[in-house]
Amino acid sequence: MEPRTRTVDAPTETSRRGIWALALVVALPFAVRAQADDPEHVSPGAPFTLRVGYQPYFAEAWSGGLIRALHLHAGRLPPGVAVDFRVGTKGADVLVPALRRGDIDLAYLGLAPTLTVTQDTTQGDFRILAVSSVSRRLCNVIVAHSGVAPFTPETAIRWLEGKQIGVPRGSCADLFLADVLERGHVQAARLLDQSFDVLSTSLRGHKVDAVAVWEPIATDLEHTTGAVRLVDGDALGMSSAAFLVVRASLLRDRPDVVRGWLAAERAAQLLLAKPGNASMLSDALAGQAVGFSWETLREAWAGPAKDPRSIPPARFPFVVTADVSTLLAGAAERMAHRGLLASANLRPQTVADETARLVLATTDAPTAQIAGIQR
């Protein structure tokens, strides 16, 4: 069955990229359900439309976009199952509410949004199904406006003292920024909640001194505004991660659908994990990341050196390994300390990666080929 695509958020401001013009053309309201049945009660084996939310402007979860671009789900999902791709152009700002409303079944989310949606059971029961990627620099990036001299990591953090900083609130970049400021005992003058479509205007007009973002937006800001990369997770040895978050009822009612999607996800991660695949990835995603040049997408993944055998800037454990568990626990503790979570302790049902472990065990490629890639 042919996949469908629609956006899950409406534009609030016109940007230079023309993203919003495209979004208005293809957007359909969530009131039009992709399936007639209550998503909490899906009959096993019945025709079904899996509604997948992802953001093509979030490199840490590019496996979702790669599945769509290369039709990797074809032949892996059960008969009678279609896929409705929901493009969340503003990321977690719309994907988290969409999950909670029951408008999507599965979403690709960064570290902070994953904890936000899985820990509050008053708004639905959601689980971590698998790990999309773990990376130091794909989310954790702070850039400053043009004219700022390059810094060492330590002086860059000190430079943020008293500055106005834009960041999409509740995102993985927001978590990184808070960690950086706390690490340097630095107090910003003001933190402005800005969606990524207005960050370029803010930087160019010096309405903010710096912004915390993710790839490929960071590289795009460098190319289009002359922004300077102040510091990133590579420089500080700080990692982030992206996850597949699923509605618990889907795990219960349609394990065959979950298993099929995870097989497609595994195939995408194998491609992402292969050195030298940056050009292929840029080819696949160029039609989805509207307004970003092919060169920007490639550099965001391969780095400025443009090495044809470049090692991917992420690793792909697929399941929640011990180090990913530590990453989740540490983020939960920091978010609880800042009042963003009710408890620093992850609820017992947070991780449900049993199906991912089965898929991993049956793949042709050895686990070490994926999990061993470090950056």
Give a written overview of the molecule.
A 7-stranded mixed sheet has the order 1-3-2-4-11-5-12, with helices on both faces. Strands 8-7-9-6-10 form a 5-stranded mixed sheet, sandwiched between helices. It has 2 domains: 4-134 and 240-371, Periplasmic binding protein-like II (D-Maltodextrin-Binding Protein, domain 2), CATH 3.40.190.10; 141-236, D-Maltodextrin-Binding Protein, domain 2 (3-Layer(aba) Sandwich). The protein is globular. The longest helix has 19 residues, at 255-273. Helix content is 40%, strand content 17%. It is α/β, with parallel strands linked by helices and 375 residues long.
CATH class of the largest domain: Alpha Beta
Number of strands: 12
How far apart are the first and last residues' alpha carbons, in Å? 38 Å
CATH superfamily of the largest domain: Periplasmic binding protein-like II
The second-level CATH architecture of the largest domain is 3-Layer(aba) Sandwich
Q: What's the average pLDDT?
A: 85
Describe the structure concisely.
This protein has 16 helices and 12 strands. By secondary structure, it is an alpha/beta fold. It has 2 domains: 4-134 and 240-371, D-Maltodextrin-Binding Protein, domain 2, CATH 3.40.190; 141-236, 3-Layer(aba) Sandwich (D-Maltodextrin-Binding Protein, domain 2).
